[in-house]
TrEMBL record:
<dbReference type="GO" id="GO:0000472">
    <property type="term" value="P:endonucleolytic cleavage to generate mature 5'-end of SSU-rRNA from (SSU-rRNA, 5.8S rRNA, LSU-rRNA)"/>
</dbReference>
<dbReference type="GO" id="GO:0005730">
    <property type="term" value="C:nucleolus"/>
</dbReference>
<dbReference type="InterPro" id="IPR039119">
    <property type="entry name" value="ABT1/Esf2"/>
</dbReference>
<dbReference type="GO" id="GO:0000447">
    <property type="term" value="P:endonucleolytic cleavage in ITS1 to separate SSU-rRNA from 5.8S rRNA and LSU-rRNA from tricistronic rRNA transcript (SSU-rRNA, 5.8S rRNA, LSU-rRNA)"/>
</dbReference>
<dbReference type="GO" id="GO:0000480">
    <property type="term" value="P:endonucleolytic cleavage in 5'-ETS of tricistronic rRNA transcript (SSU-rRNA, 5.8S rRNA, LSU-rRNA)"/>
</dbReference>
<protein>
    <submittedName>
        <fullName>Uncharacterized protein</fullName>
    </submittedName>
</protein>
<dbReference type="GO" id="GO:0003723">
    <property type="term" value="F:RNA binding"/>
</dbReference>
<dbReference type="GO" id="GO:0034462">
    <property type="term" value="P:small-subunit processome assembly"/>
</dbReference>
Amino acid sequence: MFFYDIWNIKYLSKFKWNDLTGEIAYKSVVREQKLALEISAAKRERDFYLSKVDKSRALISIQERINKVLVHRLFNLNCPDNKVTP
């Protein structure tokens, strides 16, 4: 607190110390709630991003397997000496 805040408190009539501490406590609670909201939003964004990364990895893996099978079949078609396997 600053000197002028205390000086004003001395000369305010019907002022209660609980009014000031109550306001400080209220601001603290509001700040904590805002912080909790920001943290939960960041967690949701992180989880969304990680789910997209996992989905992308799975799709890349599937595409690589498909490409491997297609290359294998193409190689077998171009080389009649090899036996064709389904």
